[in-house]
From TrEMBL:
The record marks Y136, K186 as: Important for catalysis. This is 3-isopropylmalate dehydrogenase. Gene3D superfamilies: Isopropylmalate Dehydrogenase. GO terms for molecular function: 3-isopropylmalate dehydrogenase activity; magnesium ion binding; NAD binding. The lineage of its organism: Bacteria, Pseudomonadati, Pseudomonadota, Alphaproteobacteria, Sphingomonadales. Residues 2-343 form the Isopropylmalate dehydrogenase-like domain. Mg(2+) binds at D218, D242, D246. NAD(+) binds at G276, S277, A278, P279, D280, I281, A282, G283, Q284, G285, K286, A287, N288. Belongs to the isocitrate and isopropylmalate dehydrogenases family. LeuB type 1 subfamily. Its main location: cytoplasm. It comes from Edaphosphingomonas fennica.
Length: 347
């Protein structure tokens, strides 16, 4: 099975290296990795954040393991050359529209959550975030108003087919879990959200076994901190899902703990930690690789049909945490490689 390995820039190469060590340990030589350049690393080497060879590799691969992109050296570049265009481009070109972001608190990390332990202990949810539409992909630009003021704009839009297909993923995910789906929108002010809500209700008729409720995004942000245990599956758009999943990560101890899968309609998947390239700690061996290692487990489960191997990795992460493995974001002193060692030792 061919894995496109796209480390990216910043801490991306550091965390993916540990994930590859863990994958090699559980799969023997069943996986072959082919490296591709993305993000700032690609821009610096070949002048584009998503070179055609990388896109071709991603299309050919059985699954994609992605690190992170966001090299601040590229901040001054025109938007289409910025590293983030690599992840947006991969999602769009491969039709990767369904981003699944599970958030749960390993009991061993109760002390690391920003919430009181008894509140945090109840978090066990999945955010299903749409990643092919919304304000990220709408028409955008800069113009000058009649009064001579600079004005930036980004158009937010969703059509009903886009909403229906992500809603179905939300309902299917809820059906396979505790049977509860919360659709998050801002229907009190946004037309996009009104359509979102209407279509989610239409799709719900095919899922009588799933309990649906709706929540405005501002309230959802509050409820995630007040009582995260009330959520099973959250389905939402690209922008709201981006923000809510970073927020959920704090309930789960650290942004360095949360994995994600982004799937297309052919069940091809891109697997990556939810965090970015963390330029503030890049190159220092301080990054927590567990989010990427857990993303590799999701890859085995969802794209490669290796659920038993995925279970082994998740159990090894729990065992490493139980044995005291802590990177700085979790209040400890272990390096990125030592965290990888701890997972390998537990395996
Ligand atoms: P970030 O997620 O990179 O970092 C936020 C904070 O969390 C930083 O203090 C960082 O040190 C910490 N952090 C992140 N991952 C960590 C890990 N594994 N272990 C320990 N600490 C960790 O978000 P930020 O700073 O907003 O963005 C940095 C760059 O990354 C930007 O250029 C942004 O556009 C890009 N980005 C890329 C993403 C991707 O590649 N999918 C996703 C999010 C942001
Ligand atoms: Mg984000």
């Amino acid at each position: 099975m061919l894995i496109a390995l796209l480390p990216g820039d910043g801490i991306g190469p550091e965390v993916t290296e540990q994930a590859v060590r863990v994958l090699d340990a559980v799969t023997g030589d069943a996986l072959s990795f082919e490296r591709g350049l993305v993000g700032g690393a690609a821009y610096k080497a070949v002048g584009h954040p998503l070179p055609p060879e990388t896109l071709d590799l991603a299309r050919r691969a059985d699954a994609i393991l992605f690190g992170a992109v966001g090299d601040p050296d590229c901040d001054a570049l025109e938007r289409h050359l910025r590293p983030e265009q690599a992840i947006l481009g991969l999602r769009k070109e491969l039709g990767l529209f369904a981003n699944l972001r599970p958030a749960r608190l390993f009991p061993e990390l109760a002390d690391a959550s920003a919430l009181r332990p008894e509140v945090a202990a109840r978090i066990d949810l999945v955010i299903v975030r749409e990643t092919n539409g919304d304000v990220y992909f709408g028409e955008k630009g800069m113009r000058t108003t009649a009064d001579g003021l600079r004005e930036g704009y980004d158009i937010m839009s969703y059509n009903e087919a886009e909403v229906a297909r992500i809603a179905r993923v939300g309902f299917e995910t809820a059906r396979a879990r505790r049977g509860r789906l919360c659709s998050v929108d801002k229907a009190n002010v946004l037309e996009t959200s009104q359509l979102w809500r209407d279509v989610v209700i239409e799709v719900s008729r095919n899922y009588p076994d799933v309990t649906l409720n709706h929540m405005y995004v501002d309230n959802a942000a509050m409820q995630l901190v007040r009582d995260p245990g009330q959520f099973d599956v959250i389905v939402t758009g690209n922008l709201f899902g981006d923000i809510l999943s970073d927020q959920a990560s704090m309930c789960a101890g650290s942004i360095g703990m949360l994995p994600s899968a982004t799937l297309n309609s052919r069940s091809q998947g891109l697997y990556e930690p939810i965090h970015g390239s963390a330029p503030d700690i890049a190159g220092q061996g301080k990054a927590n690789p567990l989010a990427t290692i857990l993303s590799a487990a999701m890859m085995l489960r969802y794209s490669l049909g290796k659920a038993a191997e995925a279970d082994r990795i998740e159990a090894a992460v729990a065992a490493a945490l139980a044995a005291g493995a802590r990177s700085p974001d979790l209040g400890g002193r272990m390096s990125t490689a030592e965290m990888g060692d701890a997972v390998l030792a537990a395996l």
